[in-house]
């Protein structure tokens, strides 16, 4: 049952002590240590392996032979040893081993079958084969958002919309209960949705579909529809306000955890990639080729992109040397120019924000008087904030890309800074829109808020109004993407293909910019996160929207655009996409949290109309618990619990920081060992060469 041991003395001890790695270790310890006469190297491993298996009573022998770091012949001998060892096992251990193997086989087959059920599996693989992993990462990211929105929709529909549907149809002997309003002024409870009554023109339905008003305002799409307090399903009481609030927390927490889980792998790859400039060169030269490419044109494009990356690395090294050699006069000139350009950037951002604020206020003030306007004018008034935000999102990045050329940054930092400015512009535009709405909702001048706590005359159900703005932003964003493809990309493709004019040929096809396309869908996803609280079925619209966008972008990539000559790496792009998406999620936390905790809830609609704020449903529910549980929960919310909890969290954080520092030192030592191993190999080669000469 034992492998034959190899003869000792294959390498003399004195000879091994001459190795550079041994000398370095001896210098660290400050002296020499006696080496054991036990067998070293692979021989000891081969002897110790079966002994350990035998001592473990066969438990470790269940590990497949292919998982051991042995050569093929030794793996075969180990497999024979494992099979012979089965004879001496008890029936229980035999059954346990066979069950483990069967379960592992079933799981492997199930995983293989489930891979065929992955959404757009074949399409994404074909895109990866034709255009590489960089563009494939965009479509994989789009698939992730489709799945995320679909799960959010299932969550909101199951816990918020479905109970009302069940109660309306009397399924499971269910009924509904509404609590009568007490201590609430009658004026606060007046809410008359602008539903279509009587004979209406056909274009009115189109206007309702685009703006979320009319027939859509009184459906389950918006917050104002959910006016039920309790649903009784048989003998079970379902607290709809609490379920609405918990479902909101659930979809935000689910999004946060899923994004963090996906970003961990990209963070590790990005950390390894940026750890050492020399390692970056080695990765490009020896591991930069994308073996998923099967198309000759894509292969030629990959050649050019690798060449471009190497040129940019060399240019970056040249610029670093140039920066190091700058005089004080040149530094003052560059810093002064950067300050001036940043002032221009701030002015552009301020102009965008002020324009959005003014048109939002104008649109909200005129929205109650659109009955006197025709179809086109009323639609323009309602969509005015969305139009201005879209124009700002289009013009701002063009200005930033032009100004960055004069700031004299490194090429890699230029890309990052431009992208971050564009991200800030897109997300801040949404924040300014919400701020404009809340300034109107909380406008209490001339006692407009008395006695409801908000401007009930202009916004009797302000949550539905915010949901309509988010709905219009999402619909308009989809219309712009579709219109740009139909009326810009396809005509440009026809001109370039069928017109031989030099100016047209120089203009060429538009590049498929991964970063710009990702910013588009992250902007839409941020709108979805914010709007889901005010429009519970908005994730369903986002799912359908991204599902259609996938095919629009695929057709656009294959037929009307060309891949970028300066692509970004797949690992870097995946990590960047998720970081920007995480920023959008954090931005969504703020308006949703403010709406729940600070702004008084509407008294005329919604599940929280009997509470001062949406958050008040939580302490109100806790008051219905047993007294002991109440004391525990209120104690957890008090300062006496929060301060020690914060201290424990800090200690845990410091522990993990120390652990990360220890791991970093271990990694540095392993790198040193790799360097020493390479020196050992060179030393041994030199000794062998000298021995052959003699």
Automatic annotation (TrEMBL):
<feature type="transmembrane region" description="Helical">
    <location>
        <begin position="470"/>
        <end position="488"/>
    </location>
</feature>
<feature type="transmembrane region" description="Helical">
    <location>
        <begin position="380"/>
        <end position="403"/>
    </location>
</feature>
<dbReference type="GO" id="GO:0008381">
    <property type="term" value="F:mechanosensitive monoatomic ion channel activity"/>
</dbReference>
<dbReference type="InterPro" id="IPR012496">
    <property type="entry name" value="TMC_dom"/>
</dbReference>
<dbReference type="InterPro" id="IPR038900">
    <property type="entry name" value="TMC"/>
</dbReference>
<feature type="transmembrane region" description="Helical">
    <location>
        <begin position="339"/>
        <end position="360"/>
    </location>
</feature>
<dbReference type="Pfam" id="PF07810">
    <property type="entry name" value="TMC"/>
</dbReference>
<feature type="domain" description="TMC">
    <location>
        <begin position="461"/>
        <end position="571"/>
    </location>
</feature>
<comment type="similarity">
    <text>Belongs to the TMC family.</text>
</comment>
<keyword id="KW-1133">Transmembrane helix</keyword>
<keyword id="KW-0472">Membrane</keyword>
<feature type="transmembrane region" description="Helical">
    <location>
        <begin position="641"/>
        <end position="662"/>
    </location>
</feature>
<feature type="region of interest" description="Disordered">
    <location>
        <begin position="1"/>
        <end position="64"/>
    </location>
</feature>
<feature type="transmembrane region" description="Helical">
    <location>
        <begin position="144"/>
        <end position="166"/>
    </location>
</feature>
<feature type="transmembrane region" description="Helical">
    <location>
        <begin position="575"/>
        <end position="599"/>
    </location>
</feature>
<dbReference type="GO" id="GO:0005886">
    <property type="term" value="C:plasma membrane"/>
</dbReference>
<feature type="transmembrane region" description="Helical">
    <location>
        <begin position="242"/>
        <end position="260"/>
    </location>
</feature>
<keyword id="KW-0812">Transmembrane</keyword>
<protein>
    <recommendedName>
        <fullName>Transmembrane channel-like protein</fullName>
    </recommendedName>
</protein>
